UniProtKB/TrEMBL annotation:
GO terms for molecular function: nucleic acid binding. It comes from Powellomyces hirtus. This is Integrase catalytic domain-containing protein. InterPro entries: RNaseH_sf.
Amino acid sequence: MLQTYVNKYSHDNWDTQLPYNLLAYRTAMHQSTHEYPFFLMFGRDPRLPKDLLHQTNTSTDNLEEAPMNLEMRDYRAETQLRLQKAWALARENIKNTQKTQKTWYDRISHMKDYGFCIGDRVWLTVPQFTKSARKENETAVEKLAVKWTSPHCIISCNGPTFKLLETLSPTEVILRQAHVRQLRYWTERRPVNSKENPSLTQQEILEEELKLAETANKLIRKPFRPKAYGTSQELT
């Protein structure tokens, strides 16, 4: 989350963005636990700024709303019981999520077709952060650096190795080779109420990419290394 809001290359404003990201993280439903981290910690739903502004609250577990004759020890026992149930449910949800993730990982690791086809557009992982990054950008942080490059088109495959094509201009393309573990599916984002004409089909796009690869100036390069990794140019 934090790398989405910090400055793209310098990362020098991460400390000012941290409180807002923490609030969003703690009050958002997590896919693994199916619960809010705030509730798992305190046993009640949080009061967000919008609740204070409109004098509303989705939670009914506040002390102010508890009956006047309810003693503090009873409220404490009830809160502890509620937390124990939430923790048990969260542990069960985490186990189920881990099983699902393992199933998908094993499927990708052992499948013969590797899940990708010629013409698919994929993200390509960037090289690991190196010590040389400090030379050009002293404020760059490894954990906040870009993890994936712009989408590439698969033009051929040889077992777990794929040849990728990235179009820079009508006269210049980049060819790369990457292992299946370095790739992730890329899904194009489209406006919900778009009134534009339908775009080209995947087959038509692939044909145009292959024609361009035959006529354009080909640059055989290693994976992209952005400025946050210590250099502003690609490695030849």
